[in-house]
């Protein structure tokens, strides 16, 4: 088990994620110190919750215990029942082309999954955990319920199987995604200039985390902002949101956040069933 864990944790993909996150974290700390004239506070309860999520996903626990088994089973299912998906469309392509295609394709899938988590009542019960943080930081990029992380991980799997990129190009694409995602959750005001029309900047994504529903129902892109511009979900504003978070109450501790979506969904289903049972006798009278 230890050998398997080390093989997964030390893989190029996980190494790329770790390096990208550390780089983004250092950049965020420097931004806080020199632009906002203060050091970030890691000693709050919410920061501690974000740190637990980050340790689980970036530290390898999720990869070893959940993601790796799911990927292994999915890969076997594809080989057994859908071998026609293994088209290897990028075989022999220029490495830069592979990186661009893989990165853009993964983010296209991520955009629609992210958008679905906002439009589905059931999925929002899980995604609201991510939006419950009121102080954005690169660690917030890992505040995801495990059920949501599984869905998000499965989304780009089919495009990846169809394209068949090399390990090296896939690793670089993951590095790009992780870097931009961590910076996007920094709550910063920078925009990447002209590149901000294609890339998700901190200024662009912080609007998505606003309490104001007019702002957070948009800017779903994870790496590329072009999807929001293409599909009419881009929200643009020059000033920072008045507040981050969600209007409804969400538990602040990690363990309670794990069970909260299940409780919310169960209570909603119970109320619906009770309303149906009450209406049924009335209708028969």
Describe this structure in words.
The chain is mainly alpha-helical and 285 residues long. It has one domain. The protein is built from 13 helices and no strands. The mean pLDDT is 87.
Quick take:
With 285 residues, the protein is an all-alpha fold.
User: What's the number of structural domains?
Assistant: 1
Uncertain runs: none
Derived from helix and strand composition plus strand pairing, the structural class reads mainly alpha
- The amount of helix comes to 55-70%
Question: Which sequence of SSEs, written as H and E, runs from N to C?
Answer: HHHHHHHHHHHHH
How much is the radius of gyration in Å?
Answer: 20 Å
> Which strand-content bin applies to the residues?
under 5%
The beta-strand count equals 0
What best-fitting shape do the alpha-carbon axes yield? globular
Mean pLDDT figure = 87
Sheet having the most strands? none
The number of helical runs is 13
Our measurement of the CA-to-CA distance between the termini, rounded to an integer number of angstroms, reads 64 Å
